[in-house]
Structures are given as structure tokens and as C-alpha cells.
Design goal:
This protein has about 475 residues and is of the alpha/beta class. The protein is about 40% helix and about 15% strand. The protein folds into three domains: about 60 residues, Arc Repressor Mutant, subunit A (Orthogonal Bundle); about 110 residues, Aspartate Aminotransferase, domain 1 (Alpha-Beta Complex), CATH 3.90.1150.10; about 220 residues, Type I PLP-dependent aspartate aminotransferase-like (Major domain) (Aspartate Aminotransferase, domain 2), CATH 3.40.640.10. It comes from Brevibacillus panacihumi.
């Protein structure tokens, strides 16, 4: 393979990012066809006059997104991409078995707290947030204390659309953004919009139970679909008969796999074939620690049948109670009709919305995100190192390189319940992952959420050591 004259380095963006974007475009447009062998890292670096580091980073990002594959002792090859109708990439019931669930509000005090989704607030910009909030809460703006726009403050929706385009590759206008105070409320709105035409919904198994439970309570028939090594099983999705599906493609919950580009295109093709919709849960898409964040499914093809859902709970703080979804244009009329019929009012604090708008407009959100990603990367890497040191070959980690937790599979002589009790005795909070199954498989493993975001960095190693001592002896 020879590079065409379309790529040359400039100083506006990291070299690896430029090379990654160029190669991705060449593959998507078919200029680098399936099974094309890419030059070795060293050869391409020599050809372009670069060090090997940016070339290796570009290849690793393409590998993570499924554009290329690595063949042992052979090199990197271009993967097969399905042929959707729009070829170019856009620029920018299942009632569960009774399983004991973790203590969601555990009042015990732990020396080592590996909570599965807790934030670290040590770097929260208290001074800046307080100043912006005080500027919002002034006598001259008394109207801000009244109900705001049911869809969300226009200025905030504009900022969210810009942010999503820049950081998650989402293609939308502010008119497509809907703001709410919590995920259950947003899903309930969707249920009311979709139920008349789409009475069934497919969900990942295992997966995030809030989706399955919420849609069940709204009268949907929930169809659990198993996972493959790279995400939801598309064949089983077709066979389910559902025309709605919930997926978390950028970092599957709980198993952490990243859906490659080929399967993403198959999923989009499924939605078009059945005239249905995909609900994309992008709960922690901003937090990828090695390589660039994986772009959203929503922005992959123009006008895709995707409902995108995210929040500022992980990026800033859950206490803001600001969630959002991006509706396809084809669903906007149904949403506006529902607002009119129900006299719906906004559930998210208008003051928090206006403060967040100012926070984003001043560039403070991007600054805070960079700090948090750096901090969580250190904790992520330390967690992996500590598990390797203290568990050795008695444990396997899944879902690395992104998110707030690792999935820890342990070879232990104890039962799961015994392991939970032993962890408590060792003053360690850690939750089993068994509750995420809607339909448990015949054979299950002892797997636990090792949440690393909320625990202090210096406590990770002794906490993992305490777990190993409790579980392996």
C-alpha cells in the first residue's frame, strides 16, 4: 500500500490524530479496500518522516474502532465494511431470574471503596461554578425562577449540540436536543412516544437493567439479546422480531467491549430494514484512556434512526440532575405532540441549566473534562497494575481502557456470596456483576465491578491486595 498525496502533517492537531483521520477516510471511501495490508509501523514512520509513536497510536485507534485487524506475525489489514445505502461516513419479557442485587445505598463505611460508578470530586471547580451560579441567581432575572422551556433552555441545548458534535461526533441541531432531570424520566418520555407503534424492545443481555425495567413498566415486551465478543448479536436481534433496540456501543455495560465499525453499520442497516430505532446509551463515551474516544453511533451515517442519550452525571456531577437525549428529526413531531397533550414542564433545574450553559460557553467544561480524564487514566492504569501484581493468573480483567470500572473475573474457591462477605470483612466495597443478567446463562463466572474512579489513587493498590488476600486463600 502507498499513501496517496492527501496526507501531510500540520501543527494544528497531533500527528497521530491526523494520520488516523486520513486512514479512516481512505478505508471508508474504499480507497484502501478490504484485506489491504498496511505498512509496518516502522516502515510507515520512515515513509512519512515521523517517529513510530504517532503511527502506532493511529493504528491502535483504527484497531479499536474495527477499521483494521491485526494478524499475528503478519501485520495490520483493512477489515470488511458492510455496504450501507449511504456509503460515506458522516463528517461529523423477559422477567429476570431472582438474583440478589447489590446494596445500592450501602451505609457501611469502607476503607477501600470500589463503588462501580462513583465520581471523584476532588477536582470539581467549586469556585468557578459558585461564581457562575451566583451570576444566574440575581434579582434582575426573576423570570429564571419560573418554569423554563419544557425541552430545555435554548442556550444550553445549543451548547450541548456543539459539545456533542466536537467530542462525540453527534450530528444534530439544538432543536433535536431534549433536556431532563434523570434517565428514568427521559426513558419514560420515549416510552410514551414509541409504545403505540413499537411494543417490543431488544436489550443487551447482560446490560443496564434500568432500560429493561423501565420499558417493562411502560408495557413493552422486552427481548434480551445475547452479546458476542464485539457487542450485541445482530443475527439474534433480527430473530427477536423487535424494531427497537438499546445498545451501549462505545463501552458496553457491563462487559466493556467496543463495537467495531462493521457491526455498527450492520446495526444501522438493521434499524433501516425493520423501520425501527436504536437507543444509543453513551453513558461514559468521553472517558477513554488510551487512544481517542470512540465516536458515537448516531453520527456515523446521515439521518440515522438513532436516539442518542447522555448526561453530565459522569462528566461533571450527578447532583446537577441534567440528562439529555437527541431525537431523530422523524420523532420530533411526536415529541411536540406529547408535550402539548400532557402540558409537560421541564424537570431539570432551570438555574442549573443556565449555570451549565455559562460553564460550557466559557470553555470550562472542556478544561474540567481534560483534568478528569487524566486523573481517571492514572487510577485505571494503577488498578490494572495492582490486579496483575496481586491476583496474577487467578483473575482476568474485561472492559479496559474506558469508563469508570473494570470487570474482574476471579478464580476463587468461594461462592459469590461468600466472596461478598469476605470483602466486607476486609473493609472493601465491591459489587458482583451477576445482577446485570436479564436471562442468566447456564454457566456463570464470579465477576465483580472494580470501580476505580471514586477511590483515592493511593488506596487502589492496598485495596486490591486486601481483596486478593481475602479471596484467594
Amino acid at each position: 500500500m502507498l499513501l496517496t498525496p492527501g496526507w501531510e502533517a500540520n501543527s494544528n492537531e497531533p500527528q497521530y490524530a491526523q494520520l488516523y483521520a486520513y486512514l479512516k477516510k481512505e478505508i471508508a471511501e474504499g480507497k484502501l479496500p478490504e484485506n489491504t495490508r498496511l505498512p509496518s509501523v516502522r516502515k510507515l514512520a520512515d515513509l512519512l518522516g515521523l517517529s513510530t509513536t504517532p503511527v502506532e497510536m493511529a493504528y491502535q485507534q483504527l484497531l479499536a474502532e474495527g477499521f483494521i485487524t491485526s494478524r499475528p506475525r503478519s501485520g495490520y489489514y483493512v477489515e470488511h465494511l458492510p455496504e450501507p445505502e449511504a456509503k460515506p461516513l458522516a463528517s461529523q419479557s423477559a422477567a429476570a431470574a431472582v438474583i440478589e442485587r447489590p446494596l445500592l445505598r450501602d451505609s457501611r463505611q469502607y476503607e477501600y471503596d470500589f463503588h462501580m460508578s462513583r465520581n471523584d470530586f476532588s477536582l470539581f471547580p467549586y469556585v468557578e461554578w459558585r461564581r457562575l451560579y451566583n451570576q444566574t441567581l440575581v434579582l434582575e432575572q426573576q423570570d429564571d425562577l419560573f418554569f423554563g422551556d419544557p425541552q430545555g433552555e435554548p442556550g444550553l441545548r445549543k451548547q450541548i449540540a456543539r459539545y456533542l458534535h466536537q467530542y462525540r461526533g453527534v450530528d444534530c441541531s439544538p432543536n433535536q436536543v431534549v433536556v431532563g432531570s434523570d434517565q428514568f424520566g427521559m426513558l419514560s418520555l420515549l416510552s410514551l412516544i414509541l409504545k403505540p407503534e413499537y411494543p417490543q424492545i431488544a436489550v443487551e443481555n447482560p446490560g443496564y437493567l434500568l432500560f429493561a425495567r423501565t420499558f417493562t413498566h411502560h408495557g413493552f415486551e422486552v427481548k434480551p439479546v445475547p452479546l458476542e465478543y464485539d457487542g450485541i448479536d445482530i443475527g439474534e436481534l433480527h430473530r427477536s422480531g423487535a424494531r427497537l433496540a438499546v445498545v451501549s456501543p462505545s463501552h458496553q455495560y457491563p462487559r466493556g467491549m467496543i463495537m467495531p465499525i462493521s457491526k455498527r453499520l450492520q446495526l444501522l442497516d438493521w434499524a433501516k430494514t425493520v423501520d425501527g430505532y436504536i437507543l444509543e446509551d453513551d453513558y461514559d463515551g468521553e472517558f477513554r484512556y488510551h487512544g481517542r474516544p470512540i465516536p458515537s453511533l448516531q453520527g456515523l451515517l446521515p439521518k440515522a434512526n438513532v436516539i442518542y442519550m447522555g448526561s453530565f452525571a459522569q462528566v461533571v456531577a450527578p447532583a446537577l440532575c441534567i440528562w439529555y437525549m437527541v431525537l431523530p428529526e422523524s420523532l420530533l413531531d411526536r415529541y411536540y405532540a406529547l408535550v402539548s397533550e400532557t402540558l409537560l414542564e421541564q424537570s431539570a433545574s432551570r438555574l442549573h441549566q443556565r449555570t451549565l450553559e455559562a460553564f460550557m460557553k466559557k470553555g470550562l467544561l472542556e478544561k474540567h473534562l481534560r483534568k478528569m480524564r487524566s486523573l481517571y487514566r492514572k487510577k485505571h492504569d494503577e488498578s490494572i497494575r495492582a490486579v496483575h501484581e496481586h491476583f496474577g493468573d487467578r483473575a482476568v480483567l474485561y472492559g479496559k481502557d474506558a469508563g469508570f470500572h473494570l470487570l474482574l473475573r476471579v478464580d476463587s474457591p468461594y461462592t459469590e456470596q461468600e466472596m461478598r462477605e469476605l470483602a466486607i470483612q476486609a473493609k472493601v466495597r465491591i459489587s458482583p456483576a451477576s445482577f446485570t443478567w436479564i436471562q442468566p446463562p447456564a454457566e456463570t463466572h464470579k465477576e465483580f465491578f472494580l470501580g476505580f474512579a471514586g477511590i483515592p489513587l493511593e488506596k487502589i493498590e492496598p485495596g486490591v491486595r486486601a481483596l486478593a488476600a481475602a479471596w484467594l486463600h
